[in-house]
Structure formats: structure tokens, C-alpha cells
Amino acid sequence: MGLEDRESLRILRDAVDPARGSDELIRRFYTRWFAIDMSARDLFPPDMADQRMNFGKALAWFLGELVDRRAHEPVSVLAQLGRDHRKYGVTQRHYDSLQSALLSTLRSHLITRWNDRLEEAAHDAVALAVGIMRGAADAEKGPAYRDGTVIEHLRVTRDVSVIRLQLDAPLYYHPGQYVMVQVPQWPRRWRYLSPSIPADRGGAIEFHVRAVPGGMISPSIVAETRPGDRWRISSPHGGLHVDRDGGDVLMIAGSTGLAPLRTLIMDLTRKAVNPRVHLFFGGRFPCDLYDLRTLWHIAAQNPWLSVTPVSEYSVDPPWAKDYPDVQPPRGLHVRQTGVLADVVTRYGNWSDRQILISGNPDMIRATKEALLAKGTPAERIQHDPLP
Ligand SMILES: Cc1cc2nc3c(=O)[nH]c(=O)nc-3n(C[C@H](O)[C@H](O)[C@H](O)COP(=O)(O)OP(=O)(O)OC[C@H]3O[C@@H](n4cnc5c(N)ncnc54)[C@H](O)[C@@H]3O)c2cc1C
User: Fold this and answer.
1) Which keywords annotate this record (predicted)?
2) How far is the CA of 359 from the centre of ligand 1 (A)?
3) pLDDT tens, position by position, 328-358
4) What is the tens place of the pLDDT at every residue in 118-131?
5) 220 pocket-lining for ligand 1 (C-beta < 6 Å)
6) Tens digits of per-residue pLDDT, 246-262?
């Protein structure tokens, strides 16, 4: 039976699903794995709570797809995971020890129900998942990551930094894609960042980073990054894009959510004819609109681009004077006051546009909901995956 045995697969899925209380099982799996392969422990950060949750969710999703007899998406997701995991230093040996630790944990956890059918289904499902990941990782010939040196760190406002690096070798990505980044202050903790310039043959790359209050990594990137720091950068992901034949474009950027949209705009400047692009760039205070001058320069040269600055408050706080003046010369649209979701939908539902939203998860959700409530078709709206 094996992968045909939907009943056994369902039992396995329920056992590993965090929503059904799988924490103990997943905890035991990692303990067993690290006991039989100590080198696997070094792949992970000290606190494993997020890792356990993500692993449980991914495994439950995979087994659920097998129950529903859907193979296409699991294969591509697992292949991508396998390619990605190379950057953590996962080797073929780790896959062997993972497979055997996972199988024996499932067996001992489900001992009262274990039988030949469960054994066969568990064996086949785990072998399939691990096989896809290791096969894809093995087939990938390019480097697992790029290292680069910070050459410039600009504090552009109280909580946003622009950080420029020189990579040891160029990294190719499509405009609008994101990467994962590991900084020396936090080894083995990777965070997503979106390059704010198109891929550069000479290996230059730039990121805009906002310190999230209470966050682990972003405040230390903003406070502690120094020229000379060595960063590690993964291969790119994501599909945010402008369809050049898809009509006019609406872009909505909150704070450093500007980065991928700016990259797309910069890429468009290299083409002779473009759709019209209207960008709303929002922040809390006027001084948070840290990149208005660059946007003003681009709009001044490229009549297809128009930019509306938006801030929740109309005046700057006292600390704004400690940071660069961001006001561009006259010529941009007049700054609007309000939250992005409200300001953008004041102009209608933009349903004739391709709409790209980028920013923190709350901002993306609120803006998308406001557009949908106005009648914008969901398929016109793009954004990066939400947590
Ligand atoms: C596809 C993608 C691209 C991204 N690109 C960029 C980028 O170019 N520049 C950039 O500054 N950030 C970007 N981020 C966000 C970034 O990856 C981190 O999530 C963010 O910096 C917080 O990390 P942290 O370790 O400081 O916080 P954590 O310790 O991971 O989280 C602390 C708390 O903050 C919340 N949180 C997480 N992210 C955000 C956020 N963005 N805004 C508000 N609250 C948040 C978490 O839910 C948690 O409650 C991107 C995220 C994704 C998914």
C-alpha cells in the first residue's frame, strides 16, 4: 500500500500536525536526530521553538497533500527546500540521519497503533520527502550562498538603514525577488530582505532595513552594522513582477517595503517604453519617507512614473532633525496624510491596474482588504508571502 494507503497517511499527518498538539513528537524527533548525529545540531540556532513549529507544519502539509493525492506542489516545494537548505550546510549525511530519526520517532510515538501498513506508509512518505530534497540539493551546481562585505551603512532615519555591500561574486536575481540574509551579529539566524537595486554584474547589492520594535535581528542590523562586516546571502526567491503587457501599474510601499518596488522601477528605467506606474510611498512621519529624493530623481527623468508620498502624521517629531532631510525639491505629488490603505482607496479601486503591495504583514493585509472591499479583483493584487 505505502503511499496509496490514505488512512495510514492521515494518521501520520495528524500525529505531526502542530495544530493537533504534535509538539512533544517533534521535540523528541530533534532530540533523537541530534543524539545520532551531533553535527546536525550545529545547523540550527540555539532556541528551536520556531524551527519545531515550521517543521511540524511543513510535514503535516506534505502528508496532507499525499492524502489528497496531490503530488505536483509538494515536489516543487520540497525541491526548493532542498536547494535552500544547502546554505545551512546540510549534507547528504544529514539526510540519512534525519530519515532514520524521523522514522524511529514516529514508530515510538505511535507504538500502540503501529502495524505493517503504518510502517510502510511512514517509510515511503519520509523516503519520498527526503529523496526529493536531497536529489534537488545534489543536482544544484551553483553556490549555496554568496558572501559579501558591507561597504557603507547610512542611517537614513531613526529606525531605517540603507546598507550597501560588495559581494565576493555577483548574485543574479529577478527584480522584485528577495533573499535570505545572515549577519555576523546573529549567526545561523536568517532573515528575508529584498535587494533595493537590480542585480549587478559587479557584485554590488543594497538593502533597506527597518528596525522592528522588539525584533531580534533587525534592531541590531540597524544599530550595529559596520563597514567590513561579512554578510551571507542566499539564492533568490519570490515572484513579484511587473507584466509589461499587463497594463498600468499601482505600487504601494510601506517603509522599507519600498525596496523590491524600487528595484522593479529601476529595472523599468532601462526600457524605452513602459506602462504608467503610480507609486504610493508611506511612512509614519514625513521624515520616514527616507528615499523620496531618489524617487524624485527617477520620476523627473521618466514621465511614466508618478509618486505620491503618504504619512500618517503631517509634521515631523523633534528627533527628525538628527537625520538627513528627505524632502525632495518641488515636483512630486503633494504629500497625503493618512494610512496607506485609506489614502490609496480614496482614489477608487484601481481595478484596471496590476497592483503590487509591499511592506510589513499588517500593512499588506490592511491594504489588500481595503482594495478588495472596494471591489478590486484579487487576481490583480500581488505581494510577497505573508507569515
Ligand atoms: C519576503 C520578505 C521580504 C522582506 N524584506 C525586507 C526588507 O527588504 N527590509 C526589511 O527591513 N524587512 C524585510 N522583511 C522583514 C524581515 O525579514 C524581518 O521579518 C524583520 O526584519 C523582523 O526581523 P526581526 O528578527 O527583527 O524580528 P523577529 O524577532 O523575527 O520578530 C519580532 C516580532 O516582529 C514581528 N515582525 C516580523 N516582521 C515584521 C515586520 N516586517 N514589520 C513589523 N513586525 C514584524 C514578528 O511577528 C514578531 O512578533 C521581509 C520579510 C519578508 C517575508
Assistant:
1) 2Fe-2S, Heme, Iron, Iron-sulfur, Metal-binding, NAD, NADP, Oxygen transport, Transport
2) 9
3) 777 667 889 999 999 999 998 899 999 999 9
4) 999 999 999 999 99
5) no
6) 999 999 999 999 999 99
Residues 192-225 pLDDT 10s: 999 999 999 999 999 999 999 999 999 999 999 9
CA atoms within 13 A on the CB side of 44: 19
42-70 pLDDT, tens digit each: 888 888 888 899 889 999 999 999 999 88
| Residue 226 CA, ligand 1 centroid: distance in Å | 21
CA of 211 to the centre of ligand 1 (A): 8
The answer on pLDDT for 264 being more than 90 is yes
* CA distances for 280 relative to 5, 106, 109, 175, 277, angstroms: 52, 51, 53, 19, 10
Domains and CATH numbers, the chain: 2-139 (1.10.490.10), 145-234 (2.40.30.10), 249-382 (3.40.50.80)
For residue 135, count other CB atoms closer than 10 A to its CB: 14
Is 160 touching ligand 1 by the criterion CB < 6 Å? Answer: no
CA of 256 to the centre of ligand 1 (A): 10
Residue 188 has pLDDT above 90, yes or no: no
Task: State the Cα–Cα distance between residues 206 and 153, nearest whole angstrom.
Answer: 10
Bridging pattern class, strands 305-311 and 336-337: parallel
Question: Over 90: is that where the pLDDT of 242 sits?
Answer: yes
* Ligand 1 midpoint to CA 1 (Å): 44
Is the CB–ligand 1 distance for residue 191 below 6 Å?
Answer: yes
Q: Which three cell numbers stand for residue 193?
A: 530582505
Ligand 1 site, residue 178, Cβ cutoff 6 A: yes
Interacting residues of 232 by C-beta distance below 8 A, sequence separation 6+: 87, 145, 146, 147, 181, 182
What's the CA gap between 60 and 113, in Å, rounded?
A: 19
Strands (E), the chain: 145-157, 160-167, 179-182, 191-193, 204-210, 230-234, 249-254, 277-283, 305-311, 336-337, 354-358, 381-382
The pLDDT value recorded for residue 272 is 85
Q: Is the CB of 149 under 6 A from ligand 1?
A: no
- For residue 383 and ligand 1, the question of a CB distance below 6 A is answered with no
SS3 357: strand
Contact 251 CB / ligand 1 (< 6 Å): no
